[in-house]
Batch of 2 targets.
Target 1
Amino acid sequence: MEITRILDAALRKAAAVWITSPGHGPRLVHAHWRADALWVITGGTEQSVPGLTDGAEVTVTVRSPSTHSHLVDAPAVARLTEPDEETAQALRTARLNTKPEWEAVYRLEFSA
C-alpha cells in the first residue's frame, strides 16, 4: 500500500502532524507511528484535539522530515482504543520529557 509506505518513511522521524477533524481547522498534534497506524493520546495532562472522536474521518497532513515542506495529506479514520501494555509503554516513551496521563487513545487508520 503506497500511502502506508510514504507515511512509514516520514513518520518514523516525526513527532507531530497536522490533524483536521470534522468541523475544525488543522491542529498540530503530537503523535506516534506504530504498526501502520498513527496513535494520538488526548485529555488528562495531554493535548486536546477538538472533533477527534471514535469513527471520525480526519485528514492527517505530514511534512517531510528533512525539508519540513508539505509531503502528503492522508485520510484516516479515528478509532478509540485501549492500547495493549506494549503500545502504552511506547506512547509513554515517545513523549520523552513528560509523564503522560491521558483520558483517550486514538488509533488513526489509513485507507489504501
Target 2
Amino acid sequence: MAEPSWLPAPSNYPGSFYEDLYKSLHANPNLSTQESFAAETVCQHLESLNTRNPGQYAIHSRIGGYGVAAVLRNGPGKTVLLRADMDALPVEETTGLAYASTKREVDLADQLEKPVMHACGHDVHVTCLLAAADALAADTKAWSGTLVLVFQPNEERGKGAQAMVEGGLYDKVPVPDMVLGQHVYPFRSGQVKVRTGPFFSAADSFRITLFGRGAHGSMPSRSIDPVVLAANVVLRLQGIVSRETDPAEFAVLTVGSVQAGQTENIISDKAVLGLDFRTFSTVTRGRILAALHRIVKAECQASGCTREPLIEETRRFPMLVNDGEVTAEVGKSFARDFRGDFDPDWAHVPASEDVSVLAESVGKPCCYWTFGGTEAETWDRAEKEGKIMEDIPVNHSGYFAPVIQPTLKTGTRALYAAALTFLKKE
C-alpha cells in the first residue's frame, strides 16, 4: 500500500503535529465519565479537517456522556466503524517524561481526589484514530463507502460502549457492517498482532464489604476484627484459581484493593475489598463466581460476623471474540503492510475490552488487534537478558510510556489499512 499523500515522510509519520497532539492528550487526562479534554480535542480536530480536506465529517457529540461520533460518506459501499477509547486511570505517573501528567481529579465513583494518568494508552488510540481520519478524508479518491469514527468514554469501567448505544449512537450514525479497533500493548513497537476467535478475556469486578465489630486496639477480644477477616478472605480466594479451576482453563483472580481503618490503635468495624477476575469460559466464570460467594460468606461465618457481607458487582466486560471472516481479511492487509512484523495468531490477551458491545448490539462482526508500544532497543535488550517481566512496564503501570514513534505510525497505518480493506472501490 502506498504511503497516504498527506504524510510528509515515512520517517516522521504521522508528523510533528500529531506527536504534539498526543503529548497534549497525555498531559491532560480525565477519569472515566469525565473525558472533557479528549472529547473537546476530538471535536476541534475533526472540525479543522473539514476545512482542509475534500471529505466532510458530520460530527455528533455528548453521546452516552462525552462520547463523540463522526460520519464521512463517500459514495456507495460498506460502512466501517473505527473506534478509540478516551478515558484515563487513577494512577500517579512516574515516567519522568517532559509531558507527564501531574493532574489530580475527583473520581465521581467515590468522590475522592486521585492522581490521573493515561496509563493504558488511550491517548495513543485517540491520536491514531484522528490521524487515520485525516488520511482517509484527504484520500477519498482511493475508497468508496461510509466511514464512522467513534471516540468512546468510560472504557475502563466497562460501561462506555453500552452508554453510547443507549445514548442513541445508531440513531445518529449508520449501523456499520463491521466494528474495528485496536489497543497499544507492551511489546516491540512496529509490530501488530491479532487472533481469530476469543481474544480478550471476560472480566468481572466486585466490591466486597466485610462487617466486623470495632474496638480499642488494646481490646481485640471485644471486636470482630475485619482486618484479620479480610486477610483470611484474600488468602483463601487465591485457592479458587490454583485449586478449584481446571489447569487447562485460563483464569486470573486479583484482589486489587484492601481498605480498613483510619489509624493504628483502633480496630475498624469493616473492611472493603476490590476484586477482579478474568476468564475465557462461561463455565469457568460461573464456578469462580460461586466459589467467591461461598468463601466470603464462610469466612464471615467463621469469624462470627453478625451481619452478612455485601458483595456488589462494580463492572463487567464481555469476552471479545474476533470474527473469523473479518479478521482474515484484515489479516491479509496487515500481512501485506507489516510483513514480518505482523502476527496473525497471537496469544489470548487476559485484559478486557467493551468494544464488542458496539458490534454485538446491532448483530455485526468485530475485529480488534494489538500494536506494540515498547521502544525496539529496550525490548530487544530485555528479551536478550531475559528481563521482559522486570524491565518492560505494562498497561496500568505508572511507568507505562509508549515510545512515540514508530508507535503512532504503526497504529495510524493499521487503522488506515483495516478501513481500506472493506472500503475498496469496485
